[in-house]
Task: structure prediction
Amino acid sequence: MPTIVTHSGSFHADESLAVFMLKLLPEYKDASVVRTRDAEVIKTGDIVVDVGGVYDPATHRYDHHQREFTDTFDKDHAIRLSSAGLVYKHFGKRVIRTILGWDVGHDAQVDQLFIKIYDDLIQGFDGVDNGVLQYPVDLKPAYKETTSISHRVASLNPWWNQPSTDEDLNTRFLKAVEMAGAELLEKVQYLGLSWLPARKIVEDAMASRKDIDESGRILVLDQFCPWKGHLEAFEEELKLKDADKPYYVIYEDSSKQWRIQAVPVTPSSFASRKPLPEPWMGLRDEALSTLSGIDGCVFVHASGFIGGNKTKDGALKMAKKALQM
Result:
């Protein structure tokens, strides 16, 4: 039976996640976990994480505490890796495939998820374990936040005045492994099965936008999905100038009517690039149809960030007319 070795004593989120990822892989699925700082025991490990003072993928040694260690995820990332980042960097694509059941194929999707999961989850483990602040030290937070995964893993350690044995610590550590792993499973499943399909819907809408209107200012989604972040990402990837960026997104809602939504200045902004026309704001139904000259109008919000029509054709007419006003 193979052994995964990590350090004894107080445990942290990074090695908890590192061990969880390794045990997802077939070669380590049934591995025993040994927690020690004994150099002779460390030498016997099939794979060693967060202890031992050696980073050598060829011999499966993944420690980051040595003075000379400066590795980051890639040239576009500045935060030094922890044991979580190291294991993810070398095994992450296999971990993603295992969680999503993608044994073969999906290469492009796995590559996209590999970066996204690091940015959205793993980098946080690296930053916390290496003491990297999220914001300048002279900024005083408005409130305390003690429910992050790093805080929750740390809370599993015994209190300073609570008696504990090695057996108790090992049991607590295995609980931390499952806790950190649950964060990974949820993130990978969401990104792979929800975020990634939504990206494809927005990508298709971007590719066909000039078939909808020659201006390219109107997107029509094949079905509703979270689109704001994806749109921003595609605009950056395509290096779109402001004059080429979409103003409106059209999609069918849950009531089988159609929405026209103004694209916000940023995904989290309440301000729109081009709100729906001011004369339409706050109007509904027949009054709105009469004023706009477009049948089937349902409403336009008082701020002009969203409106509705009974049909796709009606929503398109609203968007095209709004471009001209």
